[in-house]
Amino acid sequence: MLSAQEAAKIYHTNYVRNARAVGVLWTIFTICFAIICVVVFIQPYWIGDSVDTPQSGYFGLFHYCIGNPITGELVCKGSALDFGSIPSGAFKTAMFFVGISLLLIVGTIVCFSLFFFCNSGSVYKICAWMQLAAATCMVIGCMIYPDGWDSEEVKRMCGQRTDKYTLGNCTVRWAYILAIISIMDSLTLSFLAFVLGNRQDKLLPEDFQVEEKKVAHIQYEDDAQNFQNVHSCSLHSDS
């Protein structure tokens, strides 16, 4: 039968292995979330036309295309570097918060390098707070975006019944849905990072920790005894 110390060591080994496996999965999904944020930010498919809209087209955070009423050809405008080309103040604000969310998640990936220099538990907690902030910014961006649906450009595509938080004849497209899904993704990753951060501080089971404390105490007593012996020898030499 295994002793308590041997069982604790086996438990500790399995515990560390499982924690590392979960940490690897968390890292992979964090990178996937960053890719999703990039797609959500740059793709102009947040809202779009339907069979009942006066004009064809689609809108993103900053880039949009509306069909020419005569030729039907799409005319595209809008740039992230030119705020004046964005048709609504709400779209500008939404772009800002989604952009901040993207920067935060990229910052989380940059923080992965801290695992080589800092305590793993602290790094996980830093990343968790950054992911939570990224989710918050994405929520704000998704909530503010419909406030710009009353702009003239959107009404030209979706019809005059379009208003704030009322899409008229247009439909929600996949990029907007993906942004909403990414919020849940970020919250889940943040929660997992907090759990991993707290687990890193408790990787050793109680029996193993007690044994380590005993070893440390014995080592301390040996060091103290050695110091006392050296001190006594030096006193005898001086006398």
Give a verbal description of the structure.
The structure is a single chain. 64% of the residues lie in helices and 6% in strands. It is α+β, with helices and mostly antiparallel strands and 239 residues long. The chain folds into 2 domains: 4-205, Butyryl-CoA Dehydrogenase, subunit A, domain 3 (Up-down Bundle), CATH 1.20.140.150; 206-238. Strands 4-3-2-1-5 form a 5-stranded antiparallel sheet. A hairpin with a 4-residue loop joins strand 2 and strand 3 (64-67). Helix 1 runs antiparallel to helix 2 (89-110) and helix 2 packs antiparallel against helix 3. Residues 204-218 have low confidence and may be disordered.
Q: CATH fold name of the largest domain, please?
A: Butyryl-CoA Dehydrogenase, subunit A, domain 3
Cα radius of gyration in angstroms: 29 Å
Shape: elongated
For the termini, the CA-CA separation is 57 Å
CATH architecture of the largest domain, please?
Up-down Bundle
In terms of structural class, how would the helical and strand content be classed? alpha+beta
Low-confidence stretches: 204-218
Q: How does the major sheet shape up?
A: 5 strands, antiparallel
Subcellular location: Membrane
Transmembrane segments: 21-46, 94-117, 126-146, 174-196
Organism: Labeo rohita
Keywords: Membrane, Transmembrane, Transmembrane helix
